[in-house]
Amino acid sequence: MTLADRPRPKPEGPTAWAAEAAGTALLVLAALSAIALTMAPAAPLRAWPMELRLLVIGVAVGGTVAVFAVTPPGKRSGAHLNPAVSWFMALRGALSVRDATAYSVAQLAGSVVGVLVARLCWGGRMREVSDGLIQPGPGVGTAGAVVGEVVTTVVLLLVLSWLVSKPRPRETPWVIGAVIAVMIVATGATSGGSFNPARDFGPFVLGSDFRFFWLYMLAPMAGALLAAGGLHAARRAWQPRTCKLCGPALEGTR
Fold first, then answer.
1. Domain for residue 254, yes or no?
2. Per-residue pLDDT tens digits for 121-180
3. What one-character DSSP code corresponds to residue 131?
4. CB of 16 closer than 8 Å to CB of 95
5. In a domain, 176, yes or no
6. Residues of the domain holding 120
7. pLDDT tens-digit profile of 206-218?
8. 3-state DSSP call for residue 240?
9. Does the residue 5 lie in any domain?
10. Keyword Ligase, does the record have it (predicted)?
């Protein structure tokens, strides 16, 4: 497929950008609320096995993405809620660079808002869990965490690309939500199970702990580059019909 043959992305605009900010704030609030309920020293679910606690967090995060995607704001923006998703869509020609940039700024701003709201809701419990700050698990080195974040991002984006290459894939939000939940359970205790710079931006910035900031900002973006580059090398493989988890096809697709 040549550049001329690619479907043309429709400009999204400020309404979609605002939706991304709001959706990301909800995503971070859901993630931090689940962490407060499962990981804080006096949390009601603290006694549960780690796998079940990670499942609670995974369902909270994946469920928020899926539900937001089918709401009017989610349909408007596409419910990326993740700069790696937005730039992957831009690299695949389904979203303009202007919108990918605006989406990313909105998502990072929404992350900060999400942490502030979580602090209001949970008070001291947020301090006990360091505002949900993610870091590599015990015994996992920096290199291992980078690999984990890159691989999970690639998996997420390849599944998403396959889904949005279909005509009006109604199952996309729910499959993506399930994939997110499964990967959080699988990697939450090792690499951290984030694969989303926006999820981590607020906790890092407001917590003023930047030891692993570069890792959780850059590794998912590297995964987006790898996924987009691999699909580009495969020529016509899984060309997106839409940049949205639940939305209309791009102009020029069939």
1. no
2. 999 999 999 999 999 999 899 999 999 999 999 999 999 999 998 876 688 999 999 999
3. G
4. no
5. yes
6. 14-233
7. 988 899 999 999 9
8. coil
9. no
10. no
